[in-house]
Amino acid sequence: MRPWKLLDSTSVAGEAHDMKLYQRGDEYSIKTGYSELMNSRMHSSEDVLAELGCKNIRHKTDAHVLIGGLGMGFTLAETLKHTHKQANITVAELVPAVVEWNQSHLAELAGNPLQDKRVSVFQGDVAQLIRENNDTFDTILLDVDNGPEGLTRQENGALYSRNGLKAAKKALKPKGIFAVWSAFPEPRFTKRLKQAGFQTSEIPCRAHGKKGSKHMIWLGVNA
């Protein structure tokens, strides 16, 4: 088996371990410490996140989608497939190096989605954009951590708190969709979504087609 090759690394504010990008043949991996955050061969659940989150706005010319977390670009690429050619898509990415990797090492993986004219990148915390906007987004897609408890980055926990969910609801247009990706189910988060006023559904899916780890997607409609 081929060994992994380290392509680049970057420090992340407030984190003990650097974030590192690895390559092995045509496979890429992003890790912090011993934890793998994402792998280029396992993105089916991210595709489902975008498809379901954009299901009601596919033909809407003035649709505005906010994506929290660029990752390897797969969620963004799938969002582009399910939105109109005149839609507006904002990607919030906290780590500048991740944007740079998507413009270089990872660019071809998802078909260079950052080059699409519909896309703008905000290098910062998606929570800031959510707080600063009211009645703005048709869809908010969150894939910024391993789950709704902010396990990878403690500050992310605020996104999934009661106040964070209230802010997301205000940022959405009526009937807008708040879609959240997770590596595991979390009944307490389902309860919080309902308490915040979202019409909530849970969609289990697999990491790689019909195989791989079981992931969870929440869809919350701004009723």
Describe this structure in words.
The protein has 223 residues and is α/β, with parallel strands linked by helices. The protein has one domain: Rossmann fold. It has helices spanning 44-53, 74-81, 96-102, 126-132, 162-171, 187-195, and strands spanning 5-10, 19-24, 27-32, 35-39, 64-68, 88-92, 119-122, 137-142, 172-182, 198-208, 211-222. Strands 7-6-5-8-9-11-10 form a seven-stranded mixed sheet, sandwiched between helices. A four-stranded antiparallel sheet has the order 1-2-3-4, with no helix packed on it. Helix 4 (126-132) packs across helix 5. The longest helix has 10 residues, at 44-53. The chain starts with a strand and ends with a strand.
Tell me the layout of helices and strands.
Blueprint: E1 5-10, E2 19-24, E3 27-32, E4 35-39, H1 44-53, E5 64-68, H2 74-81, E6 88-92, H3 96-102, E7 119-122, H4 126-132, E8 137-142, H5 162-171, E9 172-182, H6 187-195, E10 198-208, E11 211-222
Parallel strand pairs: 5-6, 5-8, 6-7, 8-9
Antiparallel strand pairs: 1-2, 2-3, 3-4, 9-11, 10-11
Overview features:
alpha/beta; Rossmann fold; 7-stranded mixed sheet; 4-stranded antiparallel sheet
Q: Could you give a quick summary of the protein structure above?
A:
23% of the residues lie in helices and 35% in strands.
Oligomer: single chain
Secondary structure: helix percent: 10-25%
Instruction: Give the SSE string.
Output: EEEEHEHEHEHEHEHEE
Structural class label: alpha/beta
Query: Largest sheet at a glance?
Result: 7 strands, mixed
Mean pLDDT: 91
Integer tally of domains: 1
Return the CATH architecture: 3-Layer(aba) Sandwich
Query: Could you tell me how far the N terminus lies from the C terminus, measured between alpha carbons in angstroms?
Result: 51 Å
Which outline best applies? globular
**Would you tell me which CATH topology applies?**
Rossmann fold
CATH class: Alpha Beta
Low-confidence stretches: 150-154
State the helix count: 6
